[in-house]
């Protein structure tokens, strides 16, 4: 079976602003794919083109075997995708149940309304008018509207913004359950933890271009990056006493960067035991997804400035 979404060399410009400058990626059936990127990177523009809400200037796009720019198949596509957008207009004077039931009527084979109310954890709130919902409850209603049509492909644009930590974890489980039941999910998020927890694969988009793509654990060489070993310098010792090269910060914490942490740790713990001391607060880390993301997007942001500096010389 072909991929759920294929994007090749997608381009979109608004006036003089290049929003998307040659983006390519694929989303396989049954996976959760996350687009990460700073404000204005081009995520929403990309999503809107895939959803059929925005025209493209160039490139090839295939969503569930259809071209979202083709008006003749727009209705078929609309029935097979679900949308959770950043700002969904809903009738404020309808109740939660009425809103979900009304949207169910737009699809040929919708999910059961009460089942969906339960899934998004709005049971007990179904008689509330939409205008009285809290921000997080409103967002859960958005999720309900995205999934009521039983879509093959669900677009989630910053799905958990405004959620408290418990609600966020609940929403993550719901999204995983949808994926496990066969729904393909394409999401944007600003929360690295969300991408780490949910995504099978991520692409980082910066200034209209994809700067890295991979699994949350391997993105940007995270898995092979140097490990960072940290601990408190034992009393009476200096960094020069340690058996490896180390740096000490003003709080007394020692940092050792290592390409081979097993051996380095062995040297350090052996040294500590021989000196009858401990490496207090010992931790071993690789760069977090956020570290990698910040490096990737900072490199991209600073590139035009460097060009300017060079040209000023
Ligand atoms: N309708 C529009 N008209 C003109 N420029 C636009 C329009 N929509 C977006 N842009 C511009 O295109 C660029 C990409 O915007 P886009 O909304 O796609 O980014 P984003 O990655 O979704 O950002 P955010 O994380 O803030 O939602 C930005 O420079 C933005 O100002």
TrEMBL record:
Its EC number is 7.6.2.2. It is a peripheral membrane protein. GO terms for cellular component: plasma membrane. It holds the Pfam family ABC_tran. Keywords: Antibiotic resistance, ATP-binding, Cell membrane, Membrane, Nucleotide-binding, Translocase, Transport. GO terms for molecular function: ABC-type xenobiotic transporter activity; ATP binding; ATP hydrolysis activity. It is an enzyme of class 7 (translocase). PROSITE patterns: ABC_TRANSPORTER_1, ABC_TRANSPORTER_2. One of its GO terms (biological process) is response to antibiotic. Residues 5-232 form the ABC transporter domain. It is found in: Cell membrane. Belongs to the ABC transporter superfamily. Drug exporter-1 (DrugE1) (TC 3.A.1.105) family. This is ABC-type xenobiotic transporter.
């Amino acid at each position: 079976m072909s991929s759920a979404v294929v994007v090749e060399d997608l381009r979109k410009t608004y006036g003089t602003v290049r929003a998307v400058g040659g983006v390519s990626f694929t989303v396989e059936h049954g996976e959760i794919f996350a687009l990460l990127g700073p404000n204005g990177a081009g995520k929403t523009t990309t999503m809107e083109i895939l959803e059929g809400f925005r025209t493209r200037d160039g490139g090839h796009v295939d969503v569930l075997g259809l071209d979202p720019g083709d008006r003749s198949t727009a209705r078929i596509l609309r029935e097979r995708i679900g949308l959770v957008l950043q700002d969904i207009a809903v009738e404020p004077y309808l109740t939660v149940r009425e809103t979900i039931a009304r949207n169910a009527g737009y699809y040929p084979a919708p999910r059961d309304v009460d089942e969906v109310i339960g899934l998004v954890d709005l049971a007990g709130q179904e008689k509330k008018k939409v205008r009285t919902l809290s921000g997080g409850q409103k967002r859960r209603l958005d999720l309900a509207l995205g999934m009521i049509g039983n879509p093959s492909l669900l677009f989630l644009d910053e799905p958990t913004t405004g959620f408290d930590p418990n609600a966020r974890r609940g929403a993550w489980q719901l999204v995983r359950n949808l994926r496990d039941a066969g729904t393909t999910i394409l999401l944007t998020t600003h929360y690295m933890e969300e991408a780490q927890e949910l995504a099978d694969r991520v692409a980082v988009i910066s200034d209209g271009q994809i700067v890295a793509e991979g699994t949350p654990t391997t993105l940007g060489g995270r898995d092979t990056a140097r490990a960072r070993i940290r601990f408190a310098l034992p009393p009476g010792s200096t960094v020069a006493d340690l058996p490896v090269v180390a740096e000490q910060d003003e709080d007394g914490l020692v940092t050792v960067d290592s390409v081979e942490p097993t051996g380095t740790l062995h040297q350090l713990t052996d040294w500590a035991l021989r000196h009858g001391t401990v490496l207090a607060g010992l931790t071993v880390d690789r760069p977090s997804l956020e570290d990698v993301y910040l490096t990737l997007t900072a490199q991209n942001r600073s590139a035009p400035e460097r060009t300017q500096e060079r040209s000023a010389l």
